[in-house]
Specification:
- This protein is α/β, with parallel strands linked by helices.
- The protein has helices at residues 15-24, 44-51, 67-80, 97-102, 123-130, 165-188, and strands spanning 4-10, 31-38, 56-58, 85-88, 107-111, 134-141, 151-158, 192-195, 198-201.
- Strands 3-2-1-4-5-6-7 form a 7-stranded mixed sheet, sandwiched between helices.
- Helix 1 (15-24) links the parallel strand 1 (4-10) and strand 2 (31-38).
- Helix 1 runs parallel beside helix 6.
- The longest helix has 24 residues, at 165-188.
- Bound molecules: glycinamide ribonucleotide (GAR).
Length: 215
């Protein structure tokens, strides 16, 4: 089995990165993390990658005159590292359409809400304010519109009486850590087809052979 080379973009704590690192530590997992890039020099996520022996780069967005220039630097770093799949894991920068198009079908994001509800920031506080009874997380393919790409996987949690945003976030985060490696596995196995803006998941190929290898 040829494992897909994954590049993870991070900005902060890196708990989702950790979930991906832990999954990839199993040599039977169909992907390996080859590079972690942070746009913030002191992102705790970088230390997690280093502990796992994964190469890291810091590419501070403030060093670039425009979003296009920053994204071009990201793109160069990912391509130099031979990356097949990009995972956004708490990466808090909006990416330009040109960059996103270059990774179409090969870039995924984890979002802390049941999309298409609660796109953007402060999802847990907004879910509480709306009084929803179910909340959760989504892994989706990235398209130029924010938090809008075809949905790969979702997990729901109940909203409990007495929840505040932190309690709800913690319950959702447990599901993010479960869901993100699962979604990456599906993509890395070449089992994800996209039609009419929706994903369809093919059955696993026999004998661990990768179906529909990504370009
Ligand atoms: C996660 O909850 C992730 O879903 C969210 O940021 C957190 C990052 O935590 N992402 C977004 O809001 C993206 N718009 P982590 O750094 O511990 O993985």
């Amino acid at each position: 089995m040829v494992r897909k080379r994954v590049g993870v973009l991070v900005s902060g704590r890196g708990s989702n990165l950790q979930a991906l690192l832990d999954a990839c530590a199993d040599s039977a997992f169909p992907a390996e993390i080859a590079l972690v890039i942070a746009n913030v020099a002191d992102a705790p996520a970088l230390a997690r990658a280093e502990r796992a022996g994964v190469a890291t780069r810091t590419i501070p967005h403030r060093d670039f005159p425009s979003r296009e220039d920053f994204d071009a630097a990201l793109d160069r770093a990912l391509r130099e590292a031979g990356i097949d799949i990009v995972c956004l894991a708490g990466f808090m920068r909006i990416l330009t359409p040109g960059f996103v198009e270059g990774w179409r079908g090969r870039m995924i994001n984890v979002h802390p809400a049941l999309l298409p509800a609660f796109k953007g920031l402060d999802t847990h506080a907004r879910a509480l304010a709306e009084g929803v009874k179910l909340h959760g997380c989504t892994v989706h393919l990235v398209v130029p519109d924010l938090d809008a790409g075809p949905i790969l996987a979702q997990a729901a949690v109940p909203v409990l009486d007495g929840d505040d945003a932190d309690a709800l976030a913690a319950r959702v985060l447990i599901q993010e850590h479960r869901l993100y490696p699962l979604a990456l596995k599906l993509l890395a196995e070449g089992r994800v087809r996209i039609g009419n803006g929706r994903t369809h998941i093919d059955a696993p190929a026999p004998d661990g052979v990768l179906a529909n290898p990504q370009p």
